[in-house]
Structures are given as C-alpha cells and as structure tokens.
Amino acid sequence: MFKESPILRRKSRQIMVGNVPVGGDAPITVQSMTNTLTTDVAATVAQIKALEAVGADIVRVSVPTMDAAEAFKEIKKQVKVPLVTDIHFDYRIALKVAEYGADCLRINPGNIGREDRVRSVVECARDMNIPIRIGVNGGSLEKDIQEKYTEPTPEALLESAMRHVDILDRLNFDQFKVSVKASDVFLAVGAYRLLAKQIDNPLHLGITEAGGLRSGSVKSSVGLGLLLAEGIGDTLRVSLAADPVEEIKVGFDILKSLKLRSRGINLIACPSCSRQEFDVISTVNALEQRIEDILTPMDVSIIGCIVNGPGEAIISDLGLTGSSKKSGYYLDGIRQKERFDNKNLVDELEQRIRAKAKLLDVANKIDVKEVE
Asked: Which of 77, 228, 247, 281 makes a 20 to 30 Å CA pair with 60?
C-alpha cells in the first residue's frame, strides 16, 4: 500500500496568494467562495471564519459594486485567510480592492474594456505584488468564440483562456493562475489537459455548477480526480449548491484519497453486511461528526467483522475489528489486550483518537524543533 502519493505533479511556476504559495512544489490548496451578500459584513466575516475553521487555504469573495468594495475593506480587517476578490467588467473596483488589501484579483483582462484600463489594473497588481486569476467558464464564452465553435468545446475554452493570457504576456505580467471550468466533466477535463500543455502557470481546478452536495461531490471527485491523478492542478474549488464549508471538506477528502494532502482523520470503514457484529453505519456517522475538529493526519479503520478487520487494522493508526459483544482494538498495527464493549464504541474510539492525536502533535512539534 502506498504511504505517499505515486502521482508526479506537472511542473508549474509558483505565485503567492497572500502568504499561501500556489504552484511549484507547494501543497495543492483548497478554497471556497462566500455566498453571503458582501455588503453584509458580519455575515460574510462569519462565513469566512467558518471556512477557516475547517481548513480553507484561500477564500473568494464577490465584489460586484463599489459598495461591496467598501464592505470588503472592513471584511479584510477581520479575517486571516487570504482573500481573492471576484470582479467582472469594472476595472475601478479592481483598483479599489487592491488598495484595500486583496490577496488576488479574479478578473479576466479581456472583459474590462480599453487597453489603458487593463494596463492600469495590471500595473497596480505588479506594484502591490498581487496575482491575478484568469477564470474561463464554459457557460460564458465570448460571443465570437461561441459563433466559431457553435457550442462549448475544450478547444473553445482554451482559445478563450489564451486570449486573456496573451494580454498579460504582452504586458509582461506572469503572476497569474488560470481556470477553464465547465459543468460537464469531460469538457472541463479536456480543456485543462490542453491548457496544461500550453502554459506553466498554476492551474485552478473546478467543475463549475456541479450540483447539490451528493451529486456535485461525485462529479467533482470524478473530474478533479482524473486531472489530479495526471499531475494537473495546483489549487481547487469544489463548487456545490450547499454550505461552502462542505466544499472545503470534500476538497480535502479528494486530495486525501489521492494522498496529495493529509489533513484530519481518514476513516476506513466497511459498508456493513450480515457479518457485522455492531452497527457500523451509525457508529461511523456519529464518530465522524465528533472528530471533525481534529486536524491531525491519522488513519482509523472501523470494520464490523474479523474477515477484513485485522488486515485493515494492522496498517492503520487505530483499528477496530468487530466481534461478538466486545470488539478488538489495534494501536499502531498491534492488537491490544483491551476490548471495547460494542455498546460504547463511539465514546471509546473518540477518546483513543483524541489521545493519539495529541501524541502525534507533540511528536511533530519535536521533529520540527530538531530540524530547525
């Protein structure tokens, strides 16, 4: 079994979004976007802090008006996570949020009008060390590209993206990342594959408008998983019609499954069958809710019988193997003498997981100290 990811990542240049590196050999970052009215400062700050709490590396905030830009000024003062400002068409908003501390400008150069306006935004970004994100969407391609291709295709998304890239290249600005999102998995994957061959800038991955929590998570996992497995992607957003907090959780779960990032508990659990000696489903669901706050990387296996239980337990940090009335407990792959009453499994497991997490946290701090 692989302890580290066998994936060889595409080489890309690195940019900084605030204090978070994106691209190069930096970890693939996970981000989301607020869905509150930006002018409602309190609600937007509360949502950003909720995203921070579950590990968001970067958060995007829509800034459609000057009033929203003024609200952004207050929001920025109250949060720590880097903020990307989402701006369309009005270059003056870009200049204003840059002044107020935006960590990245999501603005397509080709959509903000005259050359002098584009140049003013790019020069501002250069002077203030703010990167730009080019964001192409299959649902909003330029009219002439729509007419040329008649429908969204990977080649159409690529042409749109390169049109914006060429503008920044002409202005000698290379601190940007690019996305070519679509709601169709194959359309998005095809566009990213083409783009990855054209430029070495960081790529922001996403299957846009993916759907609700369940269906959107599946579509995003399939599409992003295909690209990530090929080494494509430096940052990602899982776009769900759901609480943005769920986007961060799913994003980390995708990276965790590919061993590209380790954050929090990796629960290995059987789907349950007639061999189970305890209610696996309710145990796992209850435990998952209780340990969401634990960020320490750890593998925990919860198997309802002795057929597959021991094999999973010996390669986990903690393992539980179902047995009649009392189940077997493994720590660091070693079977322990103590057994857990099947009626108290959630309490027992939570207690052991938290104790193990504390030990690992201490060990990691000692290791860091020794390296320094």
From this structure: 228
